[in-house]
Design brief:
The structure holds 2 protein chains of 2 kinds. Chain A is α+β, with helices and mostly antiparallel strands. Chain A has 9 helices and 12 strands. Chain A folds into 4 domains: 98 residues, no CATH class; 85 residues, no CATH class; 127 residues, no CATH class; 76 residues. By secondary structure, chain B is mainly α. In chain B, α1 crosses α5 and α3 crosses α4. Classes of the chains: A alpha+beta, B mainly alpha.
Chain lengths: 400, 109
């Protein structure tokens, strides 16, 4: 006998779905198929059994599981698109290896950003129309007359759909955000342990102020280092050689706090990743790098890594070959060009329109002022993009 | 990616990519790869962690390697069937290279 159950939001909380699948198996229902479009699960009835389920997401999955997972007793139950479901007869406590969560986290994050964008857009539009509506409604000399018509139903329907999409979007953002935190937490315990053993007792604000006044703590600001990360690395290394030991970087990444200490040989690496991956931090930490700074955003991520070395040794780098080094620099150039180019084009277009109006003497002071602002914005955005490509060429010349 | 495309894209392999894939005779952590390559090359090659991470990410996208999480929830890398075929093809190319090197080496002395 086949049983069909629909779970429209199963992929938003995979941990819950996994538990649910296990409880279904305990009642004698075994998953055989998932329809991703209708969001339905199909079960075959059989002898009740204890099973541990694990859901994964991988674009490049083969027909069978990896040997490491098969050796652990995992079998692939099904594949639905990029999703797959594995099951194991062992209990969760006995299982050592399992499929990774990164694919799910990344996939759900993209969905979250899309819905986030929709919710944001709808909120802006709603605020805009409501304010116009309110203005008309409350202005003294206007009369609003509602005409009876059977076609009003379409207006109501339209707004009904809009509100439904808005609620769906809001729900998705909240739910995915919560699940992704939980999925990341599966690993966090170990990282916390790490930061406890690594983190040198951080000072509180009052202590910092005291040290600042006595001149033991020096603060320097560096804005826009992201467009020339090699210069930042050189600067930090020079500061260390002069006896200024980097103590912390502000959350925004623009303020650098140094202790006045002793000269050290430290190599710094500023690294950019398009999508921050949890395993990224493991490999650098294992290799002996200290994380000095990590930027907030989860789509674009900057990190600064440091590592002390002794006088006779070569300066260490996280990229040991020129292919990956250049690829990294190119990635920065492309990312910032993609960010700034659309803005530059839009502003150029606006200025073009404005210039045409100037020739017809139709511009007031405010409009000319806004044109000047746009012109400055074009120059600065353009210079940022150009600086990232200059960094790329510098590197290319250097590594050959 | 099918195997022909993979071979076309990767062969001949860079020394870095070759040693990273060659070290996956058993599943390893990212840093385990760095240590292993350092060992088998007697310290000649010390791979940077950024290089290893970048290469592994690319190889995973192309289906040459796959990952799973160990008991500490840390990533472990394992070679796939495609990856095995790729490294075999590359090793055969290198064998030919090596045999020819031996064969003609004397003429240059």
């Amino acid at each position: 006998m086949i049983k069909k159950i629909c779970r429209p939001f199963w992929s938003y909380d995979v941990q819950k779905t996994e538990k649910w699948l296990s409880s279904m198996a305990e009642n004698g229902y075994f998953l055989i198929k998932i329809n991703r479009v209708s969001r339905c699960f199909f079960f075959q009835q059989g002898e009740p059994k204890k099973l541990t389920y694990r859901i994964g997401f991988d674009k490049m999955q083969g027909e069978s599981l990896s040997r490491g997972l098969m050796a652990e007793g995992w079998t692939k139950v099904l594949r639905a698109g990029n999703w797959f479901v594995t099951s194991n007869e062992k209990s969760p406590e006995q299982i050592k290896t399992s499929s990774v969560r990164e694919g799910i986290i990344k996939h759900n994050r993209i969905i979250m950003y899309i819905f986030g964008g929709v919710v944001f857009y709808f909120s802006i539009m709603a605020a805009f129309y409501l304010s116009i509506f309110g203005l008309i409604l409350f202005s003294a000399d206007s009369k609003v007359e509602v005409v009876e018509s059977p076609y009003w139903i379409f207006t109501y329907l339209y707004f009904g759909v809009l509100i439904a999409i808005f609620i769906l979007g809001l729900y998705s953002v909240v739910k995915i955000n919560r699940t992704n935190k939980k999925l990341l937490n599966e690993k966090i315990n170990r990282d916390e342990l790490f930061s406890k053993t690594q983190g040198k007792g951080k000072l509180n604000k009052a202590e910092e102020k005291k040290l600042k006044r006595s001149g033991q703590l020096v603060i320097k600001r560096r804005l826009g280092w992201m467009y020339a990360p090699d210069k930042l690395e050189q600067w930090l290394e020079k500061m260390e050689e002069q006896g200024y030991n980097l103590y912390r970087v502000s959350r925004a990444g623009t303020t650098f706090h140094f202790f006045v200490g002793h000269p050290r040989k430290v190599s710094y690496c500023a690294d950019y990743q398009n999508i921050a991956d949890e395993s990224y931090f493991d490999i650098h930490r294992d290799a002996g790098w200290n994380s000095v700074f990590q930027s907030y955003g989860s789509l674009q991520k900057w990190s600064i890594w440091s590592r002390e070395y002794s006088e006779g040794e070569d300066r260490l780098q996280i990229y040991s070959d020129k292919t990956n080094q250049l690829k990294h620099a190119r990635k920065i150039g492309i990312a910032y060009t993609c960010l700034f180019l659309p803005l530059i084009i839009a502003y150029l277009f606006n200025i073009g329109l404005g210039l045409e109006m100037i020739s017809h003497n139709k511009l007031d002071k405010l409009q000319i002022f806004s044109m000047v602002i746009m012109f400055i914005a074009i120059l600065s955005f353009g210079s940022y993009s150009i600086r990232t490509w200059m960094y790329y060429w510098r590197l290319k010349k250097q590594v050959g | 990616m099918d195997i022909d495309k993979v071979i076309k894209k990767y062969v001949p392999m860079t020394e870095t990519a070759f040693y990273i894939l060659l070290s996956l005779t058993e599943p390893r952590h990212g840093y385990g790869i760095v240590k292993h390559v350092e060992d088998i090359t007697n310290g000649r090659i010390v791979l940077g962690s950024g290089t290893v991470y970048g290469t592994l990410t690319k190889m995973q996208k192309d289906g040459i390697i796959t990952v799973f999480a160990d008991e500490e929830r840390k990533r472990v890398y394992e070679v796939t069937e495609t990856g095995r075929k790729l490294i075999t093809a590359e090793i055969n190319r290198l064998k030919e290279l090596y045999q020819n090197a031996l064969k003609y080496e004397g003429d240059f002395l």
